[in-house]
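User: Sequence recovery, please. Input:
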C-alpha cells in the first residue's frame, strides 16, 4: 500500500493515470502530453509499474501501458479501514 501512495504523491504520475484511464498508450504517446524528457516519463512509468498501478505489454516495437484500477481500489479500501469505528 505504501508504494501506491508514494506513486500517487506525484502530480505527473497522477496525470499519467488520468491519461491511461481514457485509453492504453505507449510511452511515446504518454510523453507527448508532458513538457519533460522521455527518460523522465519512463522513470514515472517505472514507479507506477512497481506500485502495480499500471501494467505493460510489448506489442511489436512498442510497450503499451494500461491502468490497473483494482490495485488503486484495494489500496483506498485498505486505507479507509483506518477510519472505521470498532
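Assistant: Recovered sequence (86 residues):
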Amino acid at each position: 500500500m505504501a508504494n501506491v501512495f508514494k506513486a500517487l504523491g506525484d502530480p505527473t504520475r497522477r496525470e499519467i493515470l488520468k491519461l491511461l484511464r481514457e485509453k492504453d498508450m505507449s510511452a511515446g504517446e504518454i510523453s507527448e502530453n508532458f513538457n519533460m524528457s522521455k527518460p523522465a516519463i519512463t522513470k514515472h512509468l517505472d514507479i507506477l509499474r512497481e506500485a502495480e498501478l499500471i501494467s505493460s505489454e510489448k506489442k511489436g516495437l512498442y510497450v503499451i501501458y494500461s491502468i490497473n484500477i483494482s490495485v488503486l481500489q484495494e489500496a483506498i479500501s485498505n486505507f479507509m479501514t483506518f477510519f472505521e469505528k470498532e
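The mean pLDDT is 93.
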